[in-house]
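INFO batch 0412 | record 1 of 1 | parsing
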Amino acid sequence: QAVLQGTILLPPRVVCSGFIILLAWLSASVATFRHPGKGSVPLKGWRRRMIQTTLSCLTRTLFSVMGFQVKVKGKIASLQEAPIFVAAPHSSFFDAIISALTGMPSIVSRAENLSTPVFGKILRSLQPISVSRQDPNSRKNTVTEITKRALSKGQWPQVI
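INFO prediction complete | emitting tokens
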């Protein structure tokens, strides 16, 4: 019974997931089109609202299509309350669920992830802080950038 049900549900879930990812890529492309700074200047106005609302909604929908039911208990901290928050043990795709539930904050990510087709564009729209394993100063630069964004008084989104 469970195998039959999984066999029937898998194709529509794959098609829906692909469509949602395509919409997320399109939204990220529109929001970052001709944006000056390429990640060194925060997204503002309609661009930031578009990323926050559209990508958050699409990511939640994607996880729902995949069969995840997520409930938030308590209150999610605002940017003013917590400019930085930590998700642990951040080692899986569950970080995306946390990002969707918290309004698509900036993340700290490997620099290599930014060059991934489709997902790299979506990731870039979140204005991540990239960490390079080849650069010996990368850790220090990452800490400096996190501090700069945390002290920006709301110009940058939260950092996860």
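INFO post-check: The mean pLDDT is 86.
INFO record closed
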